[in-house]
Specification:
By secondary structure, the protein is α/β, with parallel strands linked by helices. The chain has two domains: 151 residues, SPOUT methyltransferase, trefoil knot domain (Alpha/beta knot, 3-Layer(aba) Sandwich), CATH 3.40.1280.10; 54 residues, tRNA(m1g37)methyltransferase, domain 2 (Trp Operon Repressor, Chain A), CATH 1.10.1270.20. 32% of the residues lie in helices and 19% in strands. The strands form three sheets. The chain has a five-stranded parallel β-sheet with strand order 2-1-6-5-7. A two-stranded antiparallel sheet has the order 3-4. α3 crosses α5. The chain is elongated and about 70 Å long. Bound molecules: adenine (ADE). Adenine binds next to β5. Specifically methylates guanosine-37 in various tRNAs. Belongs to the RNA methyltransferase TrmD family. Keywords: Cytoplasm, Methyltransferase, S-adenosyl-L-methionine, Transferase, tRNA processing.
């Protein structure tokens, strides 16, 4: 998989890919991340990429031309499955969307800033608009990093244990059951006996039961979906 991220704040997208699982995925060549500074695609002085809104109103708008130049250059070099715009008014990210996107080959992610992009960017280039939640960030960069993480960890070979992504919370629309490690007793709190029993079928049944119980209590909305 290859992900090209277009941004006006490339520095915000450095560290997420320089540690832990995402770093290892890149080193193992399971994913390539390419960050593009939108300011490299403007011909205007002071590397201007935004301007005032037609019709008035507070906040600057990202101009169509530099974005067109950047996306068109990328598209002339290879095919892309999706051109994603990170925006608070997009479809809210969930596990099913991450699963679908993890099966794609090449993705472009465009990070919005200021008031957002000129509508013609959305009309001409964007195939999918994604939000990471009903709140407003200063820009789409952190949202793009979250989206990348949710996708990349699902690529086969990225996680050490192949099955671990499949047992994550939200796969099957369930939260995860409680988990424990040593010691078996801490400050009077004991690990449930069944987990120490060595009886795998009973352990699995207990986990299914607890996952359902937790979901009913904390996120009953998940059980109502579909
Ligand atoms: N840009 C600003 N806020 C955002 C959000 N919640 N999701 C995606 N992109 C954003």
């Amino acid at each position: 998989m290859r992900i090209d991220i277009i941004t006006v704040v490339p520095d915000l997208l450095k560290s997420p890919f320089e540690a832990s699982i995402l770093k290892r995925a890149i080193e193992k060549k399971l994913v390539e991340i390419h960050i593009h500074n939108l300011r490299d695609y403007t011909t205007l002085s002071y590397k201007q990429i935004d301007d005032y809104q037609y019709g008035g109103g507070a906040g600057m708008v990202m101009m169509v031309e530099p974005i067109d130049k950047c996306i068109s250059k990328l598209k002339s070099e290879r095919d892309y499955d999706e051109v994603i715009y990170l925006t608070p008014d997009g479809e809210v990210l969930n596990q099913a969307m991450a699963n679908t996107l993890s099966l794609k080959g090449n993705l472009i992610m465009l990070c919005g800033h200021y008031k957002g992009v000129d509508q013609r960017v959305r009309d001409l280039f964007i195939t999918r608009e994604i939000s990471i939640g009903d709140y407003v960030l200063s820009g789409g960069e952190l949202a793009a990093a979250v989206l990348c993480d949710s996708i990349i960890r699902l690529i086969p070979g990225v996680l050490g244990n192949e099955t671990s992504a499949l047992t994550d919370a939200f796969q099957d629309n369930l939260l995860s059951p409680p988990i424990y490690t040593r010691p078996s007793t801490y400050k009077g709190l004991e690990v449930p006996k069944v987990l120490l029993s060595g009886h795998q079928r009973k352990v699995d049944e207990w986990r299914d039961e607890k996952a359902l119980e937790r979901t009913k209590e904390l996120r009953p909305d998940l059980l109502k979906e579909d």
